[in-house]
Design goal:
Elements (H helix, E strand, L loop, with lengths): L13 H13 L4 E2 L5 E2 L1 H10 L2 H9 L3 H15 L4 H14 L16 E5 L8 E6 L2 E2 L2 E11 L9 E10 L2 E10 L5 E10 L5 E2 L1 E7 L5 E11 L4 E5 L19 E5 L7 E4 L3
Antiparallel strand pairs: 1-2, 3-12, 3-15, 4-11, 4-14, 5-10, 6-9, 6-12, 7-8, 7-11, 12-13
């Protein structure tokens, strides 16, 4: 006889419960059934996805050479080598699950998954901050974003502020660059900003993307920061097909800080349609 337990989870613990379940699914912890048969939710989903691959393969074979080249170039943004078929399969499976038309279109601005930043009602201060250290000027920041404005505002906007700190004349000084997105909706777009002075030594760099008191949804992908030496960091928010991007918390002037927190409704890891 199989006993089924249906736990009642208090509302304030639902998010934590879901996170725990996703953690165990990711690492393949089995769910035991009778007759010594075991399986995992992750395995079930992977097998379901695998049944779609022959159909996706036919769709790939039907693409023109120019379209395949487009997918290869898009994959090169994430992996630094051309694996367009792998990206095409992952994208097509997401689109089938979400009941979208297949195939999708390749893009150099946004490949698969991204972080969505939201401020429903415009009543909160919402931001994501990336810290880095020990860089040499000039700095170049690039990122892709899409904006869905919910409530027009003549005062507040999606902003990106980069502050690069250095020592000069016995004081802590800074070079600052600020970007403010135009009003209204914005389709996927790439922004490139140049910060600082050539050969200047920066001991700490902060990049803050914010929608303080602004009712909008911002989709963010492909953040690149280069200094004189080369690529300082890249974040394309790409992970395993069924995994979730987990930001590394701030540690010794590196990595991420989210305000109020990296959780819904402020931040989500999504496939934007």
């Amino acid at each position: 006889m199989v006993r089924v337990i249906q736990p009642s989870i208090p509302a304030e613990y639902e998010e934590l419960w879901n996170k725990i379940m996703r953690h165990f699914e990711r690492y393949g912890v089995p769910i035991w059934c009778r007759n010594w048969f075991q399986n995992t939710r992750r395995g079930d989903r992977q097998r379901a996805a695998a049944t779609r691959i022959p159909t996706v393969a036919d769709a790939w074979n039907a693409l023109s050479e120019a379209q395949k080249t487009g997918w290869n170039d898009a994959a090169n943004v994430i992996w630094n080598y051309k694996r367009g078929y792998r990206l095409f399969v992952a994208d097509s499976i997401y689109r089938e699950i979400l009941k979208l038309s297949v195939p999708g279109a390749s893009s150099l601005l946004h490949q698969l998954l991204c972080v969505k930043m939201s401020n429903a009602g415009g009543s909160d201060k919402v931001s994501m901050r990336r810290d880095d250290k020990d860089l040499v000027g000039q700095l170049t920041l690039k990122f892709s974003y899409k904006k869905d404005e919910k409530t027009p505002s003549g005062v507040y906007a999606f902003k990106v502020k980069t502050t690069a700190y250095y020592l000069g004349q016995g004081n802590i000084l800074s070079d600052i660059d600020e970007f403010s997105a135009p009003a209204g909706n914005v389709a996927w777009n790439q922004i490139s900003r140049t910060i600082g002075t050539v050969d200047r030594q920066y001991f700490h760099v902060e990049i803050v993307l914010s929608i303080d008191n602004y009712d909008a949804e911002i989709f963010i992908d492909n953040i690149f920061l280069d200094d004189k030496i080369g690529l300082a960091f890249q974040e394309s928010f790409f992970t395993a097909r069924y995994g979730e991007w987990e930001p590394t918390p701030l540690w010794r002037k590196r990595y991420w800080v989210f305000t109020p927190s990296y959780s819904t409704p402020f931040f989500e890891f999504v496939y934007p349609n």
